[in-house]
Amino acid sequence: MQKNRIRANRQGLAFKTLLTIIMLLYPGLGTRIFNIFRCKEIDGLPDQHWFQDDLTMACYVPNSKHDNYLQVALVSVIVIVIGTPFSIGMLLFYNRKDLHDEESTNHLDLQYRLGDLYRQYEDDFW
Q1: Cα dihedral across residues 21, 26, 29, 31: positive or negative
Q2: Half-sphere CA count of 104, side-chain side, radius 13 A
Q3: Is the pLDDT of residue 73 over 70?
Q4: When comparing pLDDT for 45 and 11, which is higher?
Q5: How many CB atoms are closer than 10 A to CB 11?
Q6: Which domain holds residue 37?
Q7: Structural domain tally of the chain?
Q8: C-alpha span between 111 and 79 (Å, rounded)
């Protein structure tokens, strides 16, 4: 029984640490991902958009370096920018009954694992 409790505490700590790292990295990753879409037209040049962070790279040209970055950015928007809040929302949604029910067997584990997300949860908004 004691070994299971220790294992559960370690898993909870690992989950809590991973969640904290994700929440710290999320704003910076989102900014970098959306920077790929920052292209501008330069006066005096033909109707071409240029990548704002590297003006030697043409934007929206098929099979170009920027096109490759754009494909990775689109996948990243879905996985990171949309997937992260969606996953956290689903995690809270599926555990909503145990979050404030102190009689539940999962209550203390959820309180430990979800940390700051747990403290922000309020029953009235579900």
Answers
A1: negative
A2: 14
A3: yes
A4: 11
A5: 12
A6: 2-125
A7: 1
A8: 26
